[in-house]
Design a protein that fits this description.
Ssp411; globular; 5-stranded mixed sheet; alpha+beta; disordered C terminus; 6hp_glycosidase-like_sf; Thioredoxin-like_sf; about 10% strand; Thioredoxin
Length: about 725
């Protein structure tokens, strides 16, 4: 057992029994490397990562590897979810060094923490064009003894290039024009768009939810040519449709896997992450608001059911992830074992649903074949041969025609089949659960739940959003010292929150305020946004450092400049700043937002698709806000029904305020006199006002008429036939 046995991270604990004498990333570990004058071998991964498990089994449990690492290096393990700053900094080095990144990440550092060699997964012995890990360790150990200066120079040259890149993004002679960048972004995405299967890249295909946020707003932005607006909307809706029907979407228990290894979204990389569920739930909710297509609604609600059944902490908050690997029937770990089926298994279960004659037809509807349906070349592992990943292979109408059944009966039959398959699968050994509660990721969940309540009018979503927010504020927020912490697992961890944690909570509590209309969420959001500016503002670039300025090590100062699986801090902050300005009218929030728009211009000029979420916020800012003011008693059922009806329409840059005549106007709101006048003429029942471009509608007392008025501002509203139906 090594020193990782004292850690709380599930990933670090997975390596506590390795013969490698792993050390955590601490000052004492770094000092040890300096005293012994040894290079650090840094291994970064996470607990649900398949290739991390492969390298651990092949190499870190190998006595020869352990002997080499222990004798010539200081081996250090880092959970990327605990320390995203370390992960991001060295990932940038690895990407610059070898042209690609990923996990597990393997980096060799000097005792001064300067990287000089790196990569991702290395097999134990040379294969697939990758050097063998044992040979690599021997060579680096030898070079450290004989040609140390050459190694250090190699790393220094790459670090210098990284620093030049940072300086390049600070200085520019161009005048900011983010509308032009938005146009370029749509054009670039269209050029790379897979018009057959959806998505924006060759495999592996990642969902990247920030793209949907941007595309929906670009689809309504009048400054863009109408053909580009149409392309933006079609790319987003078509991709979401294809993903919902593919194997990347768990059609039995809900939720999405991390990414698809094939072009058709059929074979996923099986881990499930909380951040994907939260952001994709919002994307599907917005797609439902736009199209009124039940596919999008059902996909969103299934994501939430997955959260409640698999990642739910009864005390509050959501766990971080489920593993890609799980146990087979023979007790061995294999990727996707929980999710894959043989045709024989499927037919046996489906016979009980529809009879023997139709079971194979139903199995075929789910994409299954006798030989297995995994794409050629991707199912070569013995555990995956002849296995099937479930997805919808054809429209429901085609199945109804094949079975010669009415469409509603066919739909009921498919639901019954899914239920039977789900019950059978629940008897299998479940994937490993990483039960860390991560502040930023729970912020995303709060936003998703708050928006689900607004769109779907299910009070459970609002209750769970409030429960999660209260858990974070109670267990991970120290109000006396104004410190937000990153991780909760068996108690609060010691790692202070990063910029993304503060930004995520600021944004999510504003969403929760809009859903709950309790001023306390607005006030707390202001606190987190103010702390983000105070602790993390980058004095050189007017953006944000990942770590607080007073705690950031000189060598590791990272900035998030890319909306990937999670939106960058820059994007989350822009979202929160826009909402804070819209609600409070405080000019400091607008000034800071415009500063961010200007500071991001150099990044976006070079890489238009780098920050789609951020660009989506810019597009919202660029249109006139629509203010919905509902006057009525907040706990009155009629007020709540009116509120949910108006919430169902998707409008960029919308402000929704509920004014309760019993409580008066919160002092944090702008236009207090105007709102007070509305309260003074309150007739005793809910009344809605729709305000835009400096004018307000006549008071609306009927939700249907108010919605029609609201839709005149909702350029995102589309009829269902805009998208080919799956029925």
């Amino acid at each position: 057992m090594n020193t990782l046995s004292k850690e709380k991270s599930p990933y670090l604990l997975q390596h506590a029994h390795n013969p490698v004498q792993w050390q955590p990333w601490t000052e004492a570990t770094i000092q040890k490397a300096k005293e012994l004058n040894r290079p650090i071998f840094l291994s970064v991964g996470y607990s649900t990562c398949h290739w991390c498990h492969v390298m651990a089994k092949e190499s870190f449990e190998n006595p020869i590897v352990a002997e080499l690492l222990n004798a010539f290096f200081i081996p250090v393990k880092v959970d990327r979810e605990e320390r995203p700053d370390i992960d991001q900094f060295y990932m940038e080095f690895v990407q610059a060094f070898c042209g690609q990144g990923g996990w597990p990440m393997s980096v060799w550092l000097t005792p001064d923490l300067e990287p000089f060699f790196g990569g991702t997964y290395f097999p134990l012995e040379s294969k697939w064009g990758r050097p063998g890990f044992i040979d690599l360790l021997k060579k680096i150990a030898n070079l450290w003894q004989s040609h140390r200066s050459a190694l250090q120079q190699q790393g220094q040259e790459i670090l210098n290039k990284m620093r030049e890149s940072i300086l390049c993004s600070i200085e520019t002679e161009s005048q900011p024009n983010l509308t032009q960048i938005a146009r370029k972004t749509v054009e670039q995405l269209w050029a790379n768009f897979d018009s057959v299967h959806g998505g924006f890249s060759p495999p592996p295909k990642f969902p990247r939810p920030s793209l949907f946020y941007f595309l929906f707003r670009a689809g309504s932005f009048k400054e863009l040519p109408e053909p580009l607006q149409n392309k933006a909307m079609r790319m987003a809706l078509f991709t979401l449709q294809k993903m919902a029907c593919g194997g990347i979407h768990d059609i039995l228990e809900g939720g999405f896997h991390r990414y698809s290894v094939d072009a058709q979204w059929r074979l996923p990389h099986f881990e499930k992450m909380l951040y994907d569920q939260a952001h994709l739930a919002i994307a599907y909710l917005e797609a439902f608001q736009i199209t009124n297509d039940s596919l999008f609604k059902e996909t969103a609600t299934a994501i939430f059911e997955y959260l409640f059944s698999h990642l739910y902490n009864p005390a509050g908050g959501f766990y971080s992830a489920e593993d890609a690997d799980s146990l087979t029937s023979s007790g061995e770990k294999a990727e996707g074992a929980y999710y894959l089926w043989t045709m024989e298994e499927l037919e046996q279960i489906l016979e009980g649903v529809t009879g023997k004659e139709r079971s194979n037809v139903l199995a075929s509807f789910f994409g299954a074949t006798d030989q297995g349906n995994l794409p050629e070349g991707l199912g070569s592992e013995p555990s995956m041969r002849s296995k099937n990943m479930l997805f919808f292979s054809k429209p429901l109408s085609a199945l109804a025609e094949e079975l010669k059944m009415p469409i509603e009966e066919t739909k009921a039959l498919v639901l019954k089949a899914k239920t039977a398959l789900k019950e059978a699968r629940l008897k299998r050994p479940k994937p490993f659960l990483d039960d860390k509660i991560i502040t930023a990721w729970n912020g995303y969940a709060i936003s998703a739940l708050a928006k689900a309540y607004m769109v779907l009018a299910d009070s459970r979503y609002l209750n769970e959003a409030k429960k999660t927010a209260n858990f974070i504020l109670e267990h991970l927020w120290d109000p006396d010292n104004k410190i937000l912490y990153r991780i909760y697992r068996q108690g609060r961890g010691s790692i202070p929150g990063f910029a993304s944690d503060y930004a995520s909570l600021a944004a999510s509590l504003l969403d929760l305020f809009e859903a709950d209309q309790d001023e306390k969420w607005l006030l707390q959001a202001k606190v987190f946004q103010e702390l983000l500016e105070e602790k993390f503002a980058d004095p050189y670039r007017h953006q944000y450092l990942s770590r607080a300025i007073e705690t950031a090590a000189t060598i590791i100062q990272t900035r998030e400049e890319y909306d990937g699986a999670e939106p960058a801090t820059l994007s989350l902050s822009a979202y929160a700043l826009l909402k804070l300005f819209s609600i409070t009218g405080e000019e400091k929030w607008k000034k800071r937002l415009e500063e961010l728009f200007n500071s991001a211009w150099p990044i976006l000029e070079r890489f238009p698709t780098a920050l789609p979420y951020f660009l989506g916020v810019y597009l919202e800012y660029s249109v006139s806000p629509v203010e919905i003011i509902l006057v009525g008693e907040k706990d009155d059922l009629k007020t709540r029904a009116f509120y949910n009806a108006l919430s169902s329409v998707l409008i960029p840059n919308r402000i929704f305020l509920v004014l309760d005549p019993r409580q008066g106007v919160p002092r944090t709101f702008k236009s207090i006199d105007f709102y007070s006048n509305l309260l003074s003429v309150y007739p005793g029942y809910p009344v809605a006002y729709i305000c835009a471009r400096g004018q307000c509608s006549l008071p609306q007392t009927e939700p249907e008429k108010a919605i029609e008025l609201l839709k005149s501002h909702a350029t995102l509203f589309l009829e269902k036939d805009y998208l080919p139906s799956l029925d």
